[in-house]
Specification:
With 752 residues, this protein is an alpha+beta fold. 16% of the residues lie in helices and 46% in strands.
Length: 752
């Protein structure tokens, strides 16, 4: 009887909390449709539910993240869910730090417009802001969040930032150092003590970089291992901060150990894929020398490239150092794990809004069905960069299985059609401006078309040119141009009408050649002076018919802003196949580019450029075919084409007339630094030096037969939305009274 009563009580209690659903309604639901909400329920109209089932359904809705609050009620079988949704964020701002910096809002704050307000996400954003400020060596930063309800029902979120104080390292001590000079540590660590005149460029400012504190001991240990100290141990620094003036003292405890000498070098191929003798050719480490971890890494990379070029895309070179602590020697083992040979399944092109797929594919050295090669992959990236069509490119390796991969080529289109500008301000000529129009990649076809209507204080140029670097996607190229121009070479003006055409071929990945023909009719204009006997000797109207032969080597990684590689060219022009002018002209150009990021820690670029020109008279050498120096491209600080051998001329404005040189050599050394990376703007400093002269003895009244000049300065390189722009501010070196100097020049559309 007692068991029966207990059972009845339980059934009665269950029936009291059970409901039969007649209808389901939603109140306050905006971001979720009712059909989706109904599908989330574990029951439907007509079912019987209890409080526990209703409670679980409310929690399921709340977990979607759309709601500030959610609850349910039921009356006479009518089930109603009530929601209070989170507001939408329509505006996000920063105050007190990086204001109006959309990149920081995207990368650090990470709160998107149109997202729902969420307290946890706000707190996470605050933490990211504080962490980002700490990277700038500032502590005790405070971030507050202000919410403003807008009339449209959304909210504006403002992160109000009170930046903390910078910690300056005043003292830095190292205990246990004897084998190395502690001054060498400054070359590798990020946290360095403040130096005298810390505000001056190149001096340590002493600012503490909190994010690097954990890595600096590893950097010091790596320096020891570069000098053979394989047992070196560097503890994390002890930092004592004075919060009254925000200064710090740092101390390191170092155990150096002994220098290890290499006893032997062993190659261990898990699967034999290449001759060990070939592998040893890539190894610079040698028995009997102190071990160097940096050289070891470089050797490993060279071995990896060699194996990867044999199609082993997933090769690994694993280090194994077998130390003999008693004799302080180490056996260096290169363990090579090649994996399987890999074939390219597909090449996928993306990001090319304008440029045709085939224009990109013809520059790639890997295609569907090819066996993988790391060198081919690297050269493909550089070839795309040399086109000058893209603002950047990447080639991702998408692994399909152990024997197959896809290559995903991602490019970002750059402006190739632009209005080219050039000019400057000179001490004689004042403001000079030129304008031209061209497109290096018309309709995305890779064809360069230029329609030039150029006017400036020095020149007028009307021309049409077209060139195709890959005729019918082959290794052959072609070009044609027709022109009518006049150019003022400081003391006279040359009027030229003519055309040129040429055919070229690419012989290897880096070497190409060209053969061309040109014809022009040329005359001189002396509107500012009366023609003298000197003028008739040097300045005779002439026709030129010439062929040209040229060769070029270029393995740089980018067209406009190379960071690695060499560009060199040699051309010969032979005039005398008809016409009046008879001469042979040689032009030699050389440039080398080196990125310095690995040494300096930021994107600096060193450049060296050299030019050598020579012309030999074979009958008649017109003055306009001689060489001149000055301006961007030779010696900055002087007006373009103003440096030249001269002869006396009383009719000229300054008593001399420039008649050009037969040989010229110039050198430029440049350092380029990031100025405003987001705007693709850089600062460049430079030093130019050039020499020009003539060996002709047909006149004995040269005032100046040869001269050398230099210039230095700084400028801005800006890859603007309408093309690359250079603004140069120069100071001449060794100028003479008759020289025409230029303190400012600018160009647009040229390679940096």
């Amino acid at each position: 009887m007692r068991i029966f009563l207990a059972t009845m009580l339980i059934l009665l209690a269950a029936n009291l909390s059970a409901y039969t659903i007649k209808s389901i309604k939603y109140d306050g639901l905006v971001h979720m449709s009712e059909s989706v909400a109904l599908r989330m329920l574990k029951f439907e109209v007509g079912d019987t539910v209890d409080d526990e089932m209703l409670d679980k359904s409310v929690k399921a809705y709340f977990k979607q993240g759309y709601f500030m609050d959610a609850w349910v009620d039921i009356e006479n079988g009518e089930l109603t869910y009530h929601f209070k949704e989170k507001p939408l964020i329509s505006q996000v701002e920063l105050k007190g730090w990086k204001e109006n910096d959309t990149e920081i809002i995207d990368s650090v704050v990470q709160i998107k417009k149109g997202s729902l307000y969420d307290e946890k996400k706000m707190e996470a954003a605050k933490k990211r802001i504080i962490d980002a400020i700490s990277q700038e060596a500032k502590i005790d930063s405070v971030v507050e969040i202000q919410k403003e309800n807008l009339s449209n029902g959304s909210i504006k979120v403002t992160f109000v930032v009170n930046e903390g104080e910078e910690i300056i390292i005043k003292k830095q001590e190292y205990s246990g150092v004897s084998g190395l000079d502690s001054d060498e540590f400054d070359e590798v660590i990020a946290n360095k003590k403040q130096e005298y005149m810390s505000w001056f460029w190149g001096q340590n400012d002493g600012k503490m970089r909190l994010a690097d504190l954990a890595y600096d001991p590893l950097r010091i240990r790596d320096l020891y291992m570069q000098n053979g100290y394989l047992d070196a141990d560097v503890n994390e620094p002890f930092v004592k901060v004075n919060f009254d003036n925000y200064t710090a003292d740092m101390s390191y405890q170092i155990t150096e150990g002994e220098v290890y000498t290499i006893s032997a070098i062993t190659i261990n191929q898990v699967k034999h894929v290449t001759d060990d003798t070939l592998v040893r050719e890539f190894i610079k480490l040698a028995p009997g020398e102190p071990f160097n971890i940096k050289t070891f890494r470089e050797d490993s990379e060279r071995i990896k490239t060699h194996i990867a070029d044999l199609s082993y895309a997933f090769v690994r070179v694993v280090p194994d150092l077998k130390k003999d602590k008693e004799n302080k020697t180490v056996e260096v083992v290169f363990k090579i794990m090649p994996g399987e040979r890999v074939k390219i399944r597909n090449v996928i092109i993306s990001g090319n809004i304008r440029t045709l797929d085939r224009i990109i594919r013809r520059e790639l050295y890997l295609g569907p069905g090819d066996m993988y090669s790391l060198t081919d992959l690297t050269d493909s990236r550089s070839a795309l960069g040399r086109l000058g069509f893209f603002d950047g490119n990447t080639i991702e390796e998408k692994r399909i299985d152990n024997k197959t991969m896809d290559l995903v080529v991602k490019v970002k289109e750059a402006p190739t059609g632009n209005i080219q500008l050039g000019g400057g301000y000179g001490s004689y000529g004042g403001l000079l401006v030129s304008v031209a129009v061209n497109d290096r990649n018309i309709w995305g076809s890779g064809i360069n078309v230029g329609v030039k209507a150029e006017r400036s204080g020095l020149t007028s140029n009307y021309s049409f040119s077209i060139s195709n670097p890959r005729l019918n996607d082959s290794d052959f190229s072609g070009n044609f141009s027709i022109y009518m121009n006049d150019y003022q070479y400081n003391d006279y003006t040359v009027l030229s009408n003519g055309f040129s055409t040429g055919l070229g071929r690419r012989f290897t990945r880096y070497i190409s050649g060209n053969v061309g023909y040109g014809y022009s009719s040329n005359s001189y204009d002396f509107s500012d002076t009366n023609t003298t006997a000197i003028d008739t000797f040097f300045f005779e109207d002439y026709a030129k018919s010439s062929i040209s032969i040229s060769a070029k080597y270029d393995n740089t990684d980018d067209y406009y802003l190379p960071r690695s590689g060499i560009s060199a060219s040699q051309s010969f022009e032979i005039s005398g196949l008809g016409g009046d002018a008879e001469f042979i002209k040689s032009r030699t150009n050389f440039a080398i580019y080196k990125g310095l990021k690995d040494w300096l820690g930021f994107d600096a670029i060193a450049r060296y450029k050299a030019r050598f020109n020579y012309v030999k008279e074979n009958g008649y050498l017109p003055v306009a075919e001689r060489f001149y120096m000055g301006g961007i491209g030779s010696v900055r600080g002087y007006e373009s084409y103003s440096l030249s051998p001269t002869v006396a001329d009383s009719e000229s404005s300054n008593g001399v007339r420039r008649i050009g040189g037969e040989f010229t050599a110039s050198n430029s050394f440049e350092l380029s630094f990031p100025l405003v990376p987001k705007a693709k703007m850089r600062l460049v400093t430079y030093l130019d030096y050039g020499y020009i002269g003539t060996s002709t003895d047909s006149r004995n009244d040269y005032l100046v037969k040869s001269l050398d000049r230099g210039g230095f300065g700084a400028g801005v390189e800006w890859f603007s939305p309408v093309g690359p722009i250079q603004l140069m501010f120069s100071q001449p070196i060794g100028e003479e009274k008759t020289d025409k100097t230029a303190v400012f020049e600018f160009t647009m559309g040229q390679r940096f």
